[in-house]
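Entry 14. Ran structure prediction on the chain below.
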Amino acid sequence: MSSKAPVLTPDLIKVLKIFLGSALGLVLILSFFDGYRANNTGKERTFQVADADRLFFVNLRSIHYDREVRQEAVMEIFRHGKRLKSDTIPRFFPAILLPSTTNEAYLFFELEGADYPIQIQAKLRDQVIQIPFDLGGNTAHKALGEQLWPMLQQNASFSWLVGGKETPLWQTESEKEVLKTVLTDYFRILNQPQP
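Output, structure tokens:
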């Protein structure tokens, strides 16, 4: 082979065109699926909060809440200021938890004056929906809020089984408004549409 032989032969140019054309086509096709990437960070993004949404809640919405700072858990607990407060009647209201070390927010339904598991009954017109609930993780509490939201919008009446007997739950309009407000604020913090 002579030293003057051309490096870019016509066959090599054809191969490069095919390779580069297919590579660019593949990149173009995969760019349409950018939002469907695998989450390999090891972090749960379900409860992720943007700084702007957190600031909006803390600066504007938190005035309607009683704030409790838990130093041992490194978090703040926000309970609505107009929730039912009683030492004799069992209560079940959501609170918003904002950890100080992470940009996350959690919904936690606090049960006071009774023990888990509980059974919530929602009555919509002629239909009775049973919602069993036990003290679960963050996902279970968020799922309960997502399940209750459409029923609140349809003006359902609620009761629950506490100690083997059925008692009304969130029976007054103000109690339902407290529940709606907390759920609305929580989904706004997460920047998620309400279910």
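The mean pLDDT is 87. Will compare against last week's run tomorrow.
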